[in-house]
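A reminder from the course coordinator: this example appears on the midterm review sheet, so study it carefully.

Given structure:
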């Protein structure tokens, strides 16, 4: 009779249990793949294209949207997964507005530096301040959505892992 290596059996059992637990948690888990992209809920893939371009696609391959950063993309995925579509759409809008405001800030800053007349400098400075206020307001609203989506995801994970 062949001798059984208890350690190998335990290791295989651990792998089986881990696999079965993982399959139960797949619809709530977020993990990073070896290529640096993120897999969310076995539905979405987030891949950083450049420093200010993060692409969200379905696991099956269809591209959905682009975001400024991974936080905004994850927030959108969580809200979409939870069926909070109006909030998810607001995250898309805020992300696009922030991208636009960043461009306006760069333009107005450059125009301010190049302006010769005091009146022109004052106009560009006012526009620059307006852009910065708009960016602050949009960032604060977006951060609320990010914090809420994090809390909702944590609750989902806690509830699912308890069962």
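Designed residues:
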């Amino acid at each position: 009779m062949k001798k059984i290596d208890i350690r190998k059996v335990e290791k295989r059992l651990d792998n089986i249990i881990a696999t079965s637990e993982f399959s139960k948690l797949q619809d709530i888990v977020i993990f990073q793949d070896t290529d640096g992209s993120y897999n969310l809920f076995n539905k979405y893939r987030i891949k950083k294209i450049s420093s200010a371009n993060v692409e969200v696609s379905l696991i099956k391959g269809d591209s959905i949207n682009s975001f400024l950063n991974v936080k905004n993309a994850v927030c959108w995925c969580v809200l979409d997964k939870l069926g909070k579509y109006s909030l998810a759409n607001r995250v898309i809008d805020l992300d696009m507005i922030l991208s636009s405001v960043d461009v306006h800030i760069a333009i107005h800053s450059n125009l301010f530096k190049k302006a010769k007349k005091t009146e022109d400098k004052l106009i560009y400075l006012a526009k620059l301040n307006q852009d910065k206020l708009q960016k602050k307001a949009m960032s604060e609203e977006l951060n609320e959505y990010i914090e809420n989506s994090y809390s909702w995801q944590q609750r989902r994970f806690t509830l699912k892992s308890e069962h």
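The chain has one domain: 27-153. The chain has a mean pLDDT of 84.
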